Amino acid sequence: MTKLLERAIAEACSRPESEQDAIASMILNELADDRRWDETFARTQDKLARLAQKACQDVRERTSSQGISTLAVESRTPRAAFQKNPQ
Questions:
Q1: For residues 53 and 41, what is the distance between their CA atoms, to the nearest angstrom?
Q2: How far apart are CA 16 and CA 13, in angstroms?
Q3: How far is Cα 45 from Cα 56, in angstroms, rounded to an integer?
Q4: What residues have CB less than 8 Å from 19, skipping those under 6 apart?
Q5: How far apart are CA 68 and CA 62, in angstroms?
Q6: Which of 7, 15, 34, 80 makes an SS bond possible with 19, Cβ 3.0 to 4.6 Å?
Q7: The whole model's pTM is what?
Q8: Residue 77 exposure: Cα atoms within 13 Å on the Cβ side
Q9: CA 12, 17, 22, 25 torsion-angle sign
Q10: How does 52-64 read in b/e, with b if 16+ C-beta sit within 10 Å?
């Protein structure tokens, strides 16, 4: 156990029982959320990799068919849209 966790537990032990239970619930809920996130993320790695490959392929295809300068122009937001008095 780390020194910080030891300190946190010692502090929690000095609290009334109801607060100890609330702190314990918060910690357990956080750990459960982390576990669910890790499990979900692990299950989606293949799908995320396929989506990333597809996105890269789409960009390569657009770049080769339209030219990089066209893509650069399309990706810019017109500055006039953000100006108070566009000219």
A1: 18
A2: 8
A3: 16
A4: 12
A5: 8
A6: 15
A7: 0.52
A8: 4
A9: positive
A10: eeeeeeeeeeeee
13 close to 21: Cβ distance less than 8 angstroms: no
Residue recorded with tokens 């849209």:
81
Q: Give the whole-angstrom CA distance, residue 58 versus residue 26.
A: 44
Amino acid at 9: I
Longest alpha-carbon distance in the chain: 69
pLDDT tens digits in sequence order for the chain, 87 residues long: 999 999 999 999 999 999 999 999 999 999 999 999 999 988 888 888 899 999 898 888 876 666 555 555 555 555 555 555 555
- Residues ≥6 apart with Cβ < 8 Å to 20: 12, 13
